[in-house]
Specification:
Vacuolar-sorting protein SNF8, WH-like_DNA-bd_sf, ESCRT-2_cplx_Snf8, 3-stranded antiparallel beta sheet, extended, 9 helices, 10% strand, WH_DNA-bd_sf, Arc Repressor Mutant, subunit A, mainly alpha
Length: 229
């Protein structure tokens, strides 16, 4: 009897599809169980940071957003649990640090964590409470003020933002998002070495991006990768 490669392939594909359908069914059962559990034990989950962390891990593994899940099942209170918001803040910072250098306005972060489709609104005050909770767990999250606006600074290391870096960001905001060595010298009286040191530090932390400037220009522009306007 000759070997029918096409038939063998069809059988193999059929087995794979059945196995995938079985896994999908199991995953859906797990998701529904988590939804039901959140509905029945929302207060218990929120009351224990350890319980919250474990439940959040299970939700993420199952492809569920824990904050959205708790929002859909929470009581009539309009406020979010700080621990649930803290988890989302932590995830967002880790996912976007390579884009914004770990710096984002609190107002922008609240908008990013909100979801109009399910009626989920996260306020700036809730973000601040969440950051306070994260700060108690260790270094890496800090709130700073740049020209009267609150910002969250996240760092995977323990280094804090220096006063020179803070001044550079203030000038960036005034200039619409960028600085140059000349602007730093003219506004702060820094010498060339101090300008280069601060800029190099912020470039290494992904807090500044280099722009060669307009054609025929010999002056480099250094942009912040987030909106300071």
């Amino acid at each position: 009897m000759s070997f029918d490669r096409a038939a063998y392939s069809r059988v193999g594909k059929s087995l794979v599809q059945k196995h995938q359908q079985h896994l999908d069914t199991q995953l859906e059962v797990l998701r529904q169980a988590l939804v039901n559990f959140a509905s029945e034990h929302a207060s218990d989950i929120a009351a224990s940071p350890e319980f919250t962390a474990k439940f959040t891990q299970m939700c993420v593994s199952a492809g569920l957003d824990p904050l959205k899940l708790m929002s859909l099942r929470r009581s009539s209170s309009s406020s979010q649990e700080p621990s649930a918001v803290a988890v989302r803040v932590m995830e967002f910072c880790q996912q976007t640090i390579h884009i914004n250098g770990g710096l984002i306005a609190v107002s922008d972060l609240a908008t990013q964590l909100s979801d109009a489709d399910i009626g989920l609104t996260v306020t700036e005050a809730e973000v601040v409470k969440a950051v306070d909770a994260l700060q108690k767990l260790g270094p890496g999250y800090s709130l700073i003020t740049i020209n009267s606006q609150r910002w969250l600074k996240y760092s995977s290391a323990t280094d804090d933002m220096s006063s020179d870096q803070h001044k550079l960001l203030e000038l960036c905001q005034f200039m619409g998002g960028y600085v140059t060595y000349r602007l730093l010298r003219d506004n702060y009286g820094w010498d060339g070495e101090r300008c280069r040191r601060v800029v190099d530090e912020m470039i290494s932390q992904a807090l500044l991006w280099i722009d060669n400037g307009p054609p025929n220009s010999t002056e480099l522009l250094f942009w912040v990768p987030t909106n300071l306007g």
